């Protein structure tokens, strides 16, 4: 009994792992495990030697945990339904289809052009939707048949689609970054700012892999044939349009700088983008043909999602809006974009609301279960056990980071990112904080690592999403009439392996170059360069309050008035008559 009571924390953690491996739902595994060990802990408390601090009245804390600032009243988590709704509406609006078709035409003439388009559009969808499932399913439905039609290797095609969809987890406004910021007790805006550069670098690594593959295995990713380039040529026209937008933006900036100050650059860029967008629409509608068809389509299709990205992320980074407010504006912007395309209907709104409710309920139930588990786990000093276990790893801070990332990488084979964020992160954060690790950097590092949970064969969710939309049987291509072979599950799994390796490399780069994340703090100020100047003011030369003057007389404050006399309005006051001397040798007279 004493052994069990004094080792309750590791037994409780092992029991949770067993619950999860059996396949019991995560939210209920957490809550049931917490309540079961609470009952056991109360009974074994006398045998624990003080290591168990549980009593029946402690259960009264659960309602406060549920309705307090950690769950129901948590303003940070309110951003999750907004961003989820925005992503699903954008998916239904056809934005992904338009982007993939247009960017595919833009990169079509070069080898691997469709793969580049998928990566570029994946990054754009990540910055607008923040939902992995929406990105993977949209690109799988639209891009995979086209890539198979023109002879792409199935492993390369499936791998690049699944990996590009997972960029929605690390590029803001990612849902997992919101959860990580909440669990680490840090600002979501700081987490977004810290994750932006690693997300862009990871996108560049994906692009470099396609460049290398197009050189090493050119037949695995051919260029689009001439008959498939329906928008024709027109790169020069697009470059001229971009140059014109830059010139107009700079001119507007110079004009607005004297009156708008620091906001002049943003306003100038906005004017330039709006001008070229209106010009492209007018050129297309009025058949002026000033631009090429390719330039028209790229400008018209690309600018609305970029404007939505600025509406969401730009306002957050500039400090104009909180992440929750940014998500609300993004949801409204997505509705406007869908309405402009004529694809906003009551069915679309119902589907978006239903999916948003499901995901929000899923997150909420996991969070409630995690609060029950943590109440008992902290009561048996589990947090101290985990902290001692992790801080005693060899290698100090580097050893801790390597050990934690290996642990999260292995757990990601069985748990998804929400489960990892609610179960593992609260246990790791105190140890990281005690070692002096910046928690924003630590959170971004975990976010990059948890991204592999979507790509791990055989349980990666991105692989499941792609499997659900990829062809399982041979089919006839509607354009060419040729029979296309299906995509096997093994090809999807092997296609994901190189991108999992790239994500592991990105974890190492984030550890080796922390400034990629730490830039969110801004430029550090050297205290030795600060010049303190105290302005002189009347009375600063007087002795401290309450201290007697050196000569024993009370000095008059500068400009002080004699309040014993009536106020003087410029006239010379009459001389005050001297008081008659009192004869103290006689008794006082009261007559």
Keywords:
two-stranded antiparallel ribbon; 24 helices
Q: What is the string of SSEs from the N terminus onward?
A: HHHHHHHHHHHHHHHHHHHHHHEEHH
Q: With helices defined by DSSP (H or I, 4 residues minimum), what is the helix count?
A: 24
Tell me the strand percentage band.
under 5%
Which radius of gyration do the C-alpha atoms yield? 34 Å
Mean pLDDT, all residues: 81
Distance between the termini: 100 Å
- The beta-strand count equals 2
In words, what does this structure look like?
The longest helix has 34 residues, at 346-379. Helices cover 63% and strands 1% of the residues. The chain starts with a helix and ends in a 73-residue tail after the last helix. A two-stranded antiparallel ribbon has the order 1-2. The mean pLDDT is 81. It has helices at residues 2-6, 8-22, 26-44, 61-67, 79-92, 95-107, 113-128, 132-149, 154-165, 175-184, 188-216, 235-260, 264-285, 293-317, 323-340, 346-379, 382-391, 396-411, 417-423, 425-434, 439-450, 461-469, 489-512, 515-518; strands spanning 475-476, 483-484. Strand 1 (475-476) and strand 2 form a beta hairpin. It is built from 24 helices and two strands. By secondary structure, the chain is mostly helical. It is globular and about 105 Å long.
How is this structure best summarized?
The protein is mainly α and 591 residues long.
Layout: helices, strands, pairs:
Elements: H1 2-6, H2 8-22, H3 26-44, H4 61-67, H5 79-92, H6 95-107, H7 113-128, H8 132-149, H9 154-165, H10 175-184, H11 188-216, H12 235-260, H13 264-285, H14 293-317, H15 323-340, H16 346-379, H17 382-391, H18 396-411, H19 417-423, H20 425-434, H21 439-450, H22 461-469, E1 475-476, E2 483-484, H23 489-512, H24 515-518
């Amino acid at each position: 009994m004493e052994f069990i009571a004094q080792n309750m924390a590791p037994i409780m953690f092992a029991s949770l792992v067993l619950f999860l491996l059996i396949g019991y739902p995560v939210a209920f595994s957490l809550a049931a495990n917490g309540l079961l060990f609470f009952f056991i802990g109360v009974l074994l408390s006398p045998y624990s030697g003080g290591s168990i601090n549980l009593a029946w009245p402690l259960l009264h804390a659960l309602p406060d945990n549920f309705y307090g600032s950690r769950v129901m009243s948590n303003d940070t988590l309110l951003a999750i339904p907004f961003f989820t709704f925005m992503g699903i509406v954008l998916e239904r609006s056809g934005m992904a289809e338009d982007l993939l078709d247009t960017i595919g035409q833009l990169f079509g003439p070069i080898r691997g052009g469709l793969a580049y388009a998928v990566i570029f559009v994946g990054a754009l969808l990540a910055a607008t939707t923040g939902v992995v499932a929406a990105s993977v399913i949209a690109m799988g439905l639209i891009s995979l048949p086209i890539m198979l039609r023109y002879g792409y290797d199935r492993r390369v095609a499936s791998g690049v689609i699944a990996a590009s969809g997972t960029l929605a987890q690390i590029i803001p406004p990612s849902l997992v970054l919101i959860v990580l910021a909440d669990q680490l007790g840090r600002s979501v805006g700081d987490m977004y700012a810290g994750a932006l550069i690693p997300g862009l670098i990871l996108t560049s690594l994906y692009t470099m892999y396609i460049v290398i593959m197009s050189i090493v295995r050119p037949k695995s990713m051919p260029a689009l044939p001439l008959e498939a380039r329906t928008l024709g040529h027109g790169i020069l026209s697009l470059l001229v349009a971009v140059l014109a937008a830059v010139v107009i933006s700079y001119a507007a900036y110079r004009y607005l700088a004297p009156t708008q100050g620091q906001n002049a650059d943003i306003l100038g860029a906005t004017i330039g983008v709006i001008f070229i967008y209106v010009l492209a629409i007018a050129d297309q509608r009025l058949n002026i043909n000033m631009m090429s068809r390719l330039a028209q389509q790229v400008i018209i299709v690309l600018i609305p999602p970029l404007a939505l990205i600025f509406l969401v992320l730009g306002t957050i980074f500039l400090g104009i809006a909180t992440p929750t407010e940014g998500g609300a504006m993004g949801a409204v912007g997505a509705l406007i974009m869908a309405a402009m395309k004529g694809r906003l209907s009551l069915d679309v709104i119902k589907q978006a609301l239903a999916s948003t409710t499901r995901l929000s309920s899923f997150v909420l139930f996991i969070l409630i279960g995690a609060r029950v588990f943590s109440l008992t786990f902290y009561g048996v000093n589990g947090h101290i056990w985990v902290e001692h276990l992790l801080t005693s790893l060899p290698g100090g801070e580097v050893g801790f980071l390597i050990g934690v990332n290996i642990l999260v990488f292995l757990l990601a084979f069985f748990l998804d990112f929400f489960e990892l964020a609610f179960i593992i992160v609260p246990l790791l954060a105190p140890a990281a904080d005690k070692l002096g690790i910046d928690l924003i950097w630590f959170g971004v590092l975990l976010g990059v690592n948890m991204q592999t949970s979507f790509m791990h064969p055989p349980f990666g969710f991105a692989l499941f999403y792609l499997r659900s939309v990829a062809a399982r049987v041979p089919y006839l291509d509607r354009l060419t009439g040729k029979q296309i072979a299906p995509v096997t599950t093994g090809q999807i799994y092997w296609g994901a392996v190189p991108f999992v390796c790239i994500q592991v490399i990105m974890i190492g780069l984030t550890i080796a170059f922390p400034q990629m994340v730490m830039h969110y703090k801004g430029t550090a100020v050297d205290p030795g360069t600060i010049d303190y100047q105290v302005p002189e003011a009347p009375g600063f030369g007087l002795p401290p309050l309450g201290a007697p003057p050196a000569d024993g007389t009370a000095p008059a404050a500068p400009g002080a008035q004699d309040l014993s006399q009536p106020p003087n309005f410029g006239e010379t006051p009459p001389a005050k008559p001297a008081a008659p001397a009192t004869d103290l040798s006689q008794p006082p007279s009261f007559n």
